[in-house]
């Protein structure tokens, strides 16, 4: 490629070809996460790859440019010259450019040709290998690739030309073949495999949407592939496993992914992404797909003077304690300190209390280690129960700074006053009802497309019903504790799961336990194991 064919006058920059793995964001490597964090521009091929950037473990600079290569039904892939031109343009500023690609970069001939063209265009490149879908997806499907040798054939993306399926020597007539193809290419896969000497009755495993919570696997015989192809979307990507490993692998024992307790469940999480990170990660660990629907919006207080006065008092040493009752309270105080050009050193000499683990984690992220986190109950009442009484001998100052929401209860204030403290009860932020979610989400909530909904407070129940409507009776309702359960009941929701202890992770664990019990009951009754969105049957409340 001639440099004159590309955008003129653009200085070369550094480009990182980063492998994104098979599609599960949890399989992004540390190197990939680091590259994305430092990127000034990210270029992707598809919306699926772009969605990886929204994962709670992925950090991308808000000012970074994120772009997808244009595609149409007539031209599903941008030409090589256009891709390299876009990369070179993105590198003009000198910032790192991440070219995010599926799987492992150099197992895709299209990507390696793109990297070579970038070098010819004067760009400095670096390769960040990713986990290959060619080996990862069989493992996600419970197929052990240690039996009889493995031959890997990647024919996606393709132009539909059967010649792309490779030369005959690739199609070994022994061991295991792993082929990545589209449904439209299954007929050619069958023809090439049979031509290499494989029998039509050889076992085949077809895995769709591998590595995602929509993954499903179907067993067949090699000779059935042409018939199966006619029942599928021609563009659907499939991993086809043929031969020894499929026949010999004990999939009833190794099918670890699709047998997860919440596998394939669509779970409604009425919280924002920054609040729901741990909960979403736990749901994904159990195989669920979480949809976050914010039910509240956080806004500054209407009159900020009280907050400004309290922050000045914090810096000037007017308090003995600062008690944080939420992640939002931590964020509000820290942001106000940053506006004054201050950092965590402003808390020097103060004792810090956090209402629970999530709040404590937010403090630690800002460099502050809390002195008190309740052990028995992560709530305002729990914090009041474990807060030390004021001692006029040991405590030089008897004042506590309590930044909180405008709708917070008075339980903690009353408890601290009873212990002898003077409390500056300050509205640090306001919570208002969030805007309604998209129409598609509202429809899914009302019609039972969600398998479960997890509620972490009474306000999330009230606000969700207010902005999106009441979840369908088919949806499993999980509540973090008795008060939230009562709120669900008051709004006409039947509660199926109550966390044994008030905590987001405990709530998800209880939901998973419910799913395990539900599965066992269905199997004992000789019924198919369906998701809640696929059945009308209800279950008793589970509290552990």
TrEMBL record:
GO biological process: methylation; siroheme biosynthetic process
Domain Tetrapyrrole methylase: 15-225
Tree of life domain: Bacteria
Sorted UniProt keywords: Methyltransferase, Porphyrin biosynthesis, S-adenosyl-L-methionine, Transferase
InterPro entries for the chain: 4pyrrol_Mease, 4pyrrol_Methylase_sf, 4pyrrol_syn_uPrphyn_synt_sf, 4pyrrol_synth_uPrphyn_synth, 4pyrrole_Mease_sub1, 4pyrrole_Mease_sub2, Siro_Cobalamin_biosynth
UniProt GO molecular function: uroporphyrin-III C-methyltransferase activity; uroporphyrinogen-III synthase activity
Pfam families per the UniProt record, alphabetical: HEM4, TP_methylase
Domain Tetrapyrrole biosynthesis uroporphyrinogen III synthase intervals: 278-507
Name this polypeptide is given: Uroporphyrinogen-III synthase /uroporphyrinogen-III C-methyltransferase
Organism name: Luteococcus japonicus
């Amino acid at each position: 490629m001639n440099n004159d064919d590309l955008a003129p006058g653009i200085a070369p920059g550094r480009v990182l070809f980063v492998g994104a793995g098979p599609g599960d964001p949890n399989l992004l490597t540390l190197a990939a996460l680091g590259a994305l964090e430092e990127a000034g521009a990210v270029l992707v091929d598809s919306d699926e790859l772009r969605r990886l950037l929204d994962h709670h473990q992925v950090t991308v600079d808000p000012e970074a440019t994120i772009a997808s290569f244009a595609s149409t039904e007539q031209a599903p892939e941008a030409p090589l010259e256009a891709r390299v031109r876009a990369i070179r343009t993105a590198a003009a500023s000198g910032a790192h450019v991440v070219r995010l690609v599926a799987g492992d970069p150099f197992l895709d001939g299209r990507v390696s040709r793109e990297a070579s063209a970038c070098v010819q265009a004067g760009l400095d490149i670096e390769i960040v290998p990713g986990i290959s879908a060619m080996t990862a997806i069989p493992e996600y499907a419970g197929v052990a690739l240690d039996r009889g040798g493995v031959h890997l054939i990647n024919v996606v993306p393709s132009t539909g030309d059967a010649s792309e399926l490779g030369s005959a020597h690739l199609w070994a007539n022994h061991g295991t073949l792993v082929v990545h193809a589209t449904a439209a290419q299954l007929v050619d896969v069958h023809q090439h495999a049979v031509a290499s000497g494989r029998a039509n009755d050889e076992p085949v495993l077809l895995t769709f949407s591998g590595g995602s919570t929509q993954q499903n696997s179907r067993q067949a015989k090699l000779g059935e592939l042409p018939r199966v192809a006619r029942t599928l979307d021609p563009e659907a990507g499939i991993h086809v496993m043929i031969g020894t490993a499929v026949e010999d692998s004990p999939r009833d024992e190794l099918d670890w992914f699709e047998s997860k307790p919440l596998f394939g469940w669509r779970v409604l999480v009425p919280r924002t992404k920054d609040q729901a990170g741990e909960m979403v990660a736990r749901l994904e660990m159990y195989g669920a797909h979480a949809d976050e629907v914010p039910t509240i919006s956080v806004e500054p207080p209407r009159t900020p003077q009280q907050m400004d006065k309290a922050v000045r008092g914090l810096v000037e040493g007017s308090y003995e304690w600062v008690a944080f009752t939420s992640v939002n309270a931590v964020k509000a105080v820290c942001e106000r300190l940053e506006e004054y050009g201050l950092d965590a050193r402003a808390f020097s000499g103060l004792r810090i209390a956090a209402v629970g683990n999530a709040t404590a984690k937010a403090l630690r992220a800002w460099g502050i280690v809390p002195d008190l986190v309740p052990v028995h109950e992560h709530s305002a009442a729990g914090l009041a129960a474990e807060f030390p009484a004021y001692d006029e001998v040991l405590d030089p100052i008897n004042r506590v700074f309590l930044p909180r929401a405008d709708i917070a209860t008075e339980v903690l204030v009353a408890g601290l006053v009873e212990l002898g403290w003077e409390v500056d009860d300050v509205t640090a932020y306001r919570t208002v009802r969030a805007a309604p979610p998209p129409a598609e989400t509202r429809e899914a909530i009302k019609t039972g497309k969600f398998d479960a909904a997890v509620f972490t407070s009474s306000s999330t129940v009230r606000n969700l019903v207010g902005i999106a409507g009441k979840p369908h009776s088919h949806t499993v309702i999980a509540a973090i504790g008795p008060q939230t359960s009562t709120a669900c009941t008051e709004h006409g929701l039947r509660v199926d799961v109550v966390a044994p202890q008030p905590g987001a992770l405990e709530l998800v664990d209880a939901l998973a336990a419910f799913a395990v019990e539900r599965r066992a009951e269905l199997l004992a009754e000789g019924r198919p194991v369906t998701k809640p969105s696929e059945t009308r049957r209800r279950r008793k409340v589970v509290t552990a």
